[in-house]
Amino acid sequence: MAGSTFGKLWQFTSFGESHGEGIGVVIEGCPAGLEIDKAYIESELARRRPGQSTIVTQRKEPDTCEILSGTMDGISTGTPLAIWIANQNQKSKDYSHIADKFRPSHADYTYFAKYGLRDYRGGGRSSARETAARVAAGAIAKLILQKVGIEIIAYVSQVGTVIAPDVERPTKDVIESNIVRCAHSESAVEMENYIKEIRKEGDTVGGMIRCVVRGTPAGLGEPVYDRLHADLGKAMLSINAVKGFDYGSGFDTVSMKGSTHNDSYYTNDDGQIKTSTNYSGGIQGGISNGMDIYFRVAFKPVATIMQDQSSLDEKGNEVTVTGKGRHDPCVVPRAVPIVEAMAANVLVDHLLRSKTNKISDLI
Amino acid sequence: MAGSTFGKLWQFTSFGESHGEGIGVVIEGCPAGLEIDKAYIESELARRRPGQSTIVTQRKEPDTCEILSGTMDGISTGTPLAIWIANQNQKSKDYSHIADKFRPSHADYTYFAKYGLRDYRGGGRSSARETAARVAAGAIAKLILQKVGIEIIAYVSQVGTVIAPDVERPTKDVIESNIVRCAHSESAVEMENYIKEIRKEGDTVGGMIRCVVRGTPAGLGEPVYDRLHADLGKAMLSINAVKGFDYGSGFDTVSMKGSTHNDSYYTNDDGQIKTSTNYSGGIQGGISNGMDIYFRVAFKPVATIMQDQSSLDEKGNEVTVTGKGRHDPCVVPRAVPIVEAMAANVLVDHLLRSKTNKISDLI
Amino acid sequence: MAGSTFGKLWQFTSFGESHGEGIGVVIEGCPAGLEIDKAYIESELARRRPGQSTIVTQRKEPDTCEILSGTMDGISTGTPLAIWIANQNQKSKDYSHIADKFRPSHADYTYFAKYGLRDYRGGGRSSARETAARVAAGAIAKLILQKVGIEIIAYVSQVGTVIAPDVERPTKDVIESNIVRCAHSESAVEMENYIKEIRKEGDTVGGMIRCVVRGTPAGLGEPVYDRLHADLGKAMLSINAVKGFDYGSGFDTVSMKGSTHNDSYYTNDDGQIKTSTNYSGGIQGGISNGMDIYFRVAFKPVATIMQDQSSLDEKGNEVTVTGKGRHDPCVVPRAVPIVEAMAANVLVDHLLRSKTNKISDLI
Amino acid sequence: MAGSTFGKLWQFTSFGESHGEGIGVVIEGCPAGLEIDKAYIESELARRRPGQSTIVTQRKEPDTCEILSGTMDGISTGTPLAIWIANQNQKSKDYSHIADKFRPSHADYTYFAKYGLRDYRGGGRSSARETAARVAAGAIAKLILQKVGIEIIAYVSQVGTVIAPDVERPTKDVIESNIVRCAHSESAVEMENYIKEIRKEGDTVGGMIRCVVRGTPAGLGEPVYDRLHADLGKAMLSINAVKGFDYGSGFDTVSMKGSTHNDSYYTNDDGQIKTSTNYSGGIQGGISNGMDIYFRVAFKPVATIMQDQSSLDEKGNEVTVTGKGRHDPCVVPRAVPIVEAMAANVLVDHLLRSKTNKISDLI
Q1: Contact by Cβ (8 Å): A153, A340
Q2: Are A274 and B312 in contact (CB under 8 A)?
Q3: pLDDT tens digits, residue range C148-174?
Q4: Contacts of A169 (CB under 8 A, 6+ apart)
Q5: Chain D closest-CA separation from residue B217 CA (Å)
Q6: Of A9, A146, B92, D361, whose CA is between 20 and 30 Å from A259?
Q7: Neighbours of C317 (CB within 10 A)
């Protein structure tokens, strides 16, 4: 059973390769009556696209999209929404220098081991270009979440050894005002410089993205395997280059005591149930409690570096591999919209799944 | 769509509550011809059960199991395997003191918000007692993995502030020789003392489990959403009290450079393809490369503490909640077999999924 | 991917064999707050059980059930409902006479071909005893359908060559007043006599069941593969001994003209949209239109006959097989509740699925 | 959960509308290494397309296709295969005359009831144009089946009151030599004349398609809900205009006795296990036994007729509806490749599912 389908009620299948015709996504489960705002989808794609700033890959992928199905007069009809993002220029490239070589820490060898052959053109299906499909689906998910008051904000919190201080309430305004997408403007400058330095070395570096989800009602998530944070975790870990995920107190929880970690309930002045602390990260027993959901996603350094590396080819011969072309020295600035998109896809899925919790929902 | 089903080809559904009749699991997808070793299943359950040592809850749950279906003369027939672990004694307890109260950092409030009612008897479905079902399914998964030479070893690497040093090659012998299930004997003593101290305070503490999977062939895992590590991550995050997961270089990757992080391929003396380092954690592009898979799982402190805590009841009144009964001061010693079981369930699922990768597999 | 799971949002997995410990079913997706009426479930099981009348098998299977999980104080909690129907007496039987023989038109050979081994005790998993699980799940489904005013009535319309005349509005009263479960009392007598005659010959005979679903709101069913009638058809065809399914005009449609067959819309005195004829069988484009849904299910003669038959054993030797024990001469009287149950399971599944059709459902 | 996805291991999602941009399908689960023969896919589409003969609709849909993803150098890579069939000319049409009217026995009213809005342009998603996606997916399925020696042949056996005599061994040659796609040449002439007559009346008529699957190995199909014939039945019933399905002895079984109906096993001269009769239709207990699988599919008359019909509009007003444009007087000639395609899709799905039946398959 292949793995290009995500979600249960909000279920999408992505298709396409880095250097094929394009990238597409078919979404099943979008309710009828939603305005499918193409300009909004493209604005989200623009946040992910290469060439958007001086610190990302300078490849040109304008990433306009076509809505192939599922709407009439711009409104969703309840039938599958298909979105297509055509590739441009990629097909002309020459990949013969890596056609039979396994680039270190790429998926070349593992795809070959699995399938007995592989699409070596720019990584084929393993390329991060696939994430355009996620961003497109996530954009529509966000349009739905807006209707119920759920907002998702991701931002870069670390690049290599540059760690931004915690920001109490990150805002889109600040995040989108710098090319790193850091919530802390001063750190953003430092990060930008750091990334440029790394690029000069022909090297790459890892980074961290934090994400907060505001406005989630209590009650989203399913016991016991489809806990909201388990689905968020899977969504994040499925993104290219991600090596770790934690939420709420996360890895820090390991050294904490229960007496500190437990979040006490109280009723606020508006009569809403809240917790005095939020180590739970807005999720208890796998189900949202109405507090902010927040989590971290750790990204590894991009595998393509402009340095000679020793490796093997398909026949087992030792070879030297050298990066070519234009690649990201650090993936996180462009990964921010991807993290948001996957979070949105998970939340809409659970929003839809929450509509039959009670017998009274049916009557 | 409810969330008590896990996996795609190795697909199991768990059922039952902490203080109902028992815990059960139905497994779909077990191939015919496997000896279902009941004694082995029970030996795995025994590693998870309460009362097994002085540092875990002293509740008595002997956790014998019945094979309800799917075998003849002890051999799997290819039809659903159902395993039942009856509860004992639990039903007589009195839960009136928490029947309408939301215990801090438990699932009481979120279940109530989701369903409009909840099973307050020992946490009902949200209780970690459900993990017995995972261990039972995982035991059978391990029996399959043994056939193909895959071995899974989990162990405690941290309890609160006590951090065990890295162990080059953890062994079952050492791990099972101490009641903490630490791979480093000296640290185990320290952890044991620490846990006892915490218990005296009426408090609880978090911990970390590491897991290594040896012997995985190259080629397990699916692009792009069902990456092997994404499924492992979801599996771990679905375990009660888990707050974080990372694999390979994990969160440390954030500050690393690509030139260091990339794992170079070479051929070893037996002609096998290996990597000189293993920051990838045995998985590249979501697919296993044949190297050891390793990951970490962060557990929060148990929410039930023997101290007064302020909270709310179902009507919104302020109340005081105090832990009663016998609970774990630290969950990780008993969580080791759960981590192993969920890893086994994921690996068998992907092993089964790998049988139709190539057209030549069909002919 | 094994096939013992049915449905998408109302999803149940059955397990157990004819002569193992018992038959069970785990239901995922039952909303919280439903009274799980055990007496009602058992009354439905009683309609299916052997020994209920003089024209069915005289085996004794009292078929009481246990609710293993998913309720508190008799009310569903939203978590998996497990129901267990223990087998009685079966285990003592001797099956050595057929252990290695392929009974004609049974599943013996095909299971052997598929799995390399088989449970020969009473047919194992291929036994119609499995349908007890469907009836139990269907009983709960019916309890849900009652809340929204949907009623399902099945009845025998043909036994061998005895064809009952059409009945305008079949009633439970008439149907349950005769042991054949025919909606036409006079025909019931004739059918009963016919069945007894067949039994005397040591033979068996086929039969037909009709089913009508009243009170379905317009809008249930999904384009394009999960059409309501496609799911009903699969449900019926999955019942042991079923060879055909049609709905509305069914096979008669083949010789009809569009000018006759089309159902004209009009508004009735209550302002409801109706069709003047109902060749569509209440479903158009795979989606219910609010009219009665009706369909037919064709059952083959039971394969176990009290006559000598030539066959093969596992080694390919020619052997003679003779039926032993107590079997049904005609399956349809006991299949009526099974047909109803599977129809109920499909309708509840689509009822649940219909709750997120429109964006306005989410807000 | 929307219903545009079919299959489990061979899983495809179709998208697109009659008068939108086109029709597409994304296939998950195609093993790597298959030559994706575009010309073959188009030849199958040509068998389905309008305008191919004088007895079908004269609309022009050339139905060429593009392979959007999943191949390199024409070979499948194991990743999702997307196929796109662009619509041509359709968008310019005027549908204002039916925009708010419910055409009798179309899906207009039911889609409106379900979604609160509908795509009225040529039936939108409910149009039989969607079946192009099935044929495309089925063409690739056939390419796989060819590798294992499975052949599928469908043909028209009845048109209105014209019934072709049974043909012992239908051949593609005869079937494709006449425009009705009847396996009996003389009947084909009669059927052709009948259809032309019906068209002159402005009317439409139903028809029957038979299908035989040769070369299936024993062991395909899953107990208990995913029986091979249940999945075939669902596949056929999901095709537009289908009202009934039966297999093997089918509806005739109702009046048969077990002593006649049971198929006796014997070993043929080549040492293969066969049955002397084949009332089982090649499937026993839901699993193939290696004999020919055969089944019937009943199609209703096309709903669009060139006659005035009374109906309602969205506001409940009485209106007159008259067919316009070019429509099929009888759907079965063009439905033959659709029936074959859906059968192929089911068989490949079960072929893939059969690869993990036994533990020995894994080692």
Answers
A1: yes
A2: no
A3: 999 999 999 999 999 999 999 999 999
A4: none
A5: 12
A6: B92
A7: 11
We find that the CATH architecture of domain D5-361 is: 4-Layer Sandwich (3.60)
* Residue with tokens 């397309």, as numbered in its chain: D49
Region of residue D89 (phi > 0: left; psi between -120 and 50: alpha; otherwise: beta): left
Asked whether the beta carbons of residue A80 and residue D13 sit closer than 8 angstroms, the reply is: yes
User: What's the rounded Cα separation, in Å, for the pair B356 and B8?
Assistant: 14
DSSP 3-state of D45: helix
- Classify strands A287-288 and A207-214 as parallel, antiparallel or unpaired: unpaired
Q: Which residues of D touch B148 (CB under 8 A)?
A: 362-363
Best of C201, C224, C279 to mutate (most D CBs within 10 Å, chain D): C224
List CB contacts (< 8 A) between C118 and chain B.
Answer: 77
CA distance C359 to chain B (A): 18
Residue B115 DSSP SS3:
helix
Can the peptide bond before residue D26 be classed as cis, meaning omega within 30 degrees of 0? no
Q: Which residues of C touch A358 (CB under 8 A)?
A: 31-33, 78
Q: Which residue has the tokens 């290599």?
A: A160
Q: Quick check: B28 and B137 in contact, CB under 8 A?
A: no
> Phi-psi bin for B14: left (phi > 0), alpha (psi -120 to 50), beta?
beta
Give me the amino acid identity at C72.
M
Instruction: Please enumerate in sequence order all residues whose Cβ is within 8 A of that of B43, keeping only pairs 6 or more positions apart, or say none.
Output: none
Residue-wise pLDDT tens digits, B283-294: 999 999 999 999
Neighbour order of strands in the sheet with A5-6: A5-6, A11-16, A22-28, A81-86, A66-69
Vertex B167: Cα angle to B164 and B171 (nearest 5):
110
DSSP class per residue in A201-235: TT--B-EEEEEEEE-PPTT-S-SBSS-HHHHHHHH
B24 to C26: CB separation less than 8 angstroms, yes or no: yes
Report the complex ipTM. 0.97
Alpha carbon dihedral B17, B22, B28, B31, in 10-degree steps, equals 140
CB B164, CB A254: distance < 8 Å: no
Contact partners, residue B39, CB within 8 Å, separation at least 6? none
Tell me the C-alpha distance between D231 and D221, whole Å.
Answer: 9
B83 touches B68 (CB < 8 A): yes
* D72-111 residues touching C, CB cutoff 8 A: 102, 104-107, 109-111
Residue-level length of chain B = 363
Residues in a beta bridge with B265: B275
Q: Is D114 on the interface with B (CB under 8 A)?
A: no
Q: Could you report the per-residue pLDDT of D306-337, keeping only the tens digit for each?
A: 999 999 999 999 999 988 777 899 999 999 99
Give tens-digit pLDDT for C278-296: 999 999 999 999 999 999 9
List Cβ neighbours of D43 (8 Å cut-off, separation of 6 or more).
none
CA distance D4 to C226: 7
CA separation for the pair C128, D89 (Å, rounded): 54
Pairwise CA distance, residues A260 & B205, whole Å: 10
Structure tokens at C78: 């939203």
pLDDT digits (tens, 9 = 90+) for B38-49: 999 999 999 999
Q: What is the pTM of this model?
A: 0.98
Kindly state whether A313 is in contact with chain D, defined as any CB-CB distance less than 8 angstroms: no
H helices of chain B, in order, are 38-48, 108-115, 131-148, 172-177, 185-200, 228-237, 258-261, 332-353
Q: What distance in Å separates the CA atoms of residue B171 and residue B155, rounded to the nearest whole number?
A: 9
The rounded distance, in Å, linking the Cα atoms of C279 and D101 is 20
Nearest C-alpha in A relative to B285:
A107
The label of the residue with tokens 């994921």 reads B346
The residues, any chain, with a CB within 8 Å of residue A258's CB and separated by 6 or more, are: B105, B203, B204, B205, B301, B302, B303, B304, B305
- Which pLDDT band holds residue D91 (cuts at 50, 70, 90)? low
